[in-house]
Amino acid sequence: MDEEIRRLFPVTHNYIYLNHAAVAPLSLPVYERMTAHARDVLESGLVHWREWGEAVERVRELGARLVNAQPEEIAFAPNTSAGLSMIANGIEWRAGDNVVTADCEFPANLIPWRRLERQNGVQVRMAREYEGRLNIDEILGLVNERTRVVSLSFVEFASGFRNDLAAIGSFCREHDVLLVVDAIQGLGALELDVARDHIDAFAADAHKFLLGPEGAALLFLGPRAIERVRPTVVGWMSVKEAFAVNNGIQEYAAGARRFEPGALNTCGVLGLGAAIELLSSVGVGRIESYLIELGDYLCARLEDKGYQVISSRKKGEASSVISCRHPRHSAQSLSQHLEAQRIITTARVGRLRISPHFYNTIEEMDRLIECLP
Ligand SMILES: Cc1ncc(COP(=O)(O)O)c(C=O)c1O
Question: 304 Cβ partners below 8 Å, 6+ apart?
Fold first, then answer.
């Protein structure tokens, strides 16, 4: 990627930052959009609220365009967990219904479903990760006539395994099951198309590969999800005419907006908008190709150095989350050793997790390899 892009990320002066699967550093355009909003509130309070509202709607459009959805199918949520929880709680469950997911999901996509086990007699059926992969036949084999939802990550947080959402989505359509996706480990780095992949709902906060701030999540609900998921967290903004401030029973707002109960994190949403503009100006397709190539290069070098790469690098299974192990050194000690040399990674479930983004370079991968024991 060009030097010009790299200049937008001041973090590059301080670190080799390879931890986008945890929290991304802000770019200058995101930082400037957010500080401009904070300054406006500092100097003028709410005086410009109409302009804020218009700017938020532009971000809704950008978010929709990013995933090939319609703006009315996008809500802003506090984070991925809240979005997934709203979906899980909003379905009218009957005892004996089940949800199909996987044992390697991040808790954000397990705890909301597990809560239903105790409360509603819903069964949580889990496919098992094996050698850093999920087997699609195993996932689909868990679906039966009582399955209401399949809920999986776009990219698994600890292995970087990319699920075949298109195949899972079309199976779910055929079997009248909702496909819900925790999209946070892929969105921004890999192309996601909700229409092509038959995704019914997804949630993804902005702070990982989207390169936005924390606390400004995209929550998508397509037509089948809008039909089947009732709003359970509601407030003055969930209704059709929010500004009528009417305490009578009112109809919910059309589309996903009913999942926004009250004031938004406007500053965060505007930051997310600047981040999507930046990603879109480069093109997520181009970013994806670059990251797969960069990741393949890194994995080959890791293996040469005696590391066991856990992440699948097969076509369609690779992502920008790369996990590896050393036969003797713990992941924790490796991550600490790298941090001492200003290379930021993390340890997850006993694996060293390296997660570059599009402004990282081959030279940075070489430097990482050089610094590893
Ligand atoms: C797969 C996955 N989902 C969700 C999250 C975070 O959820 P939230 O946005 O609720 O903090 C993470 C990481 O923090 C994650 O790896």
Answer: none
Count of CB atoms situated within 10 Å of the CB of 347: 16
pTM above 0.85, yes or no: yes
For residue 244, pLDDT beyond 90: no
pLDDT of residue 249: 78
Q: Whose CA is nearest to atom 8 of ligand 1?
A: 80
Can you give the C-alpha Rg of the chain in angstroms?
21
C-beta neighbour count of 373 within 10 angstroms: 11
Quick one: which atom of ligand 1 is closest to the CA of 81?
10
C-alpha 338 chain-centroid distance: 26
Q: What percent of the chain has pLDDT above 70? A: 100
| Residue nearest atom 16 of ligand 1, based on CA coordinates | 157
Tokens of 311: 């992440």
At the fourth CATH level, the homologous superfamily of domain 3-26+283-371 is Aspartate Aminotransferase, domain 1 (3.90.1150.10)
Q: How far is the CA of 241 from the centre of ligand 1 (A)?
A: 33
The residue nearest atom 14 of ligand 1, judged by CA position, is 22
pLDDT for 241: 87
User: Ligand 1, from 129, 156, 157: best to mutate by most atoms within 8 Å of Cβ?
Assistant: 157
178 lines ligand 1 (CB under 6 A): no
Does ligand 1 lie within 6 Å of residue 209's CB atom?
no
∠ CA 48-62-265, rounded to 5° = 45
Domain boundaries of the chain, sorted by first residue: 3-26+283-371, 33-281
Q: Is 157 in the pocket of ligand 1 (CB under 6 A)?
A: yes
| Pairwise CA distance, residues 44 & 153, whole Å | 41
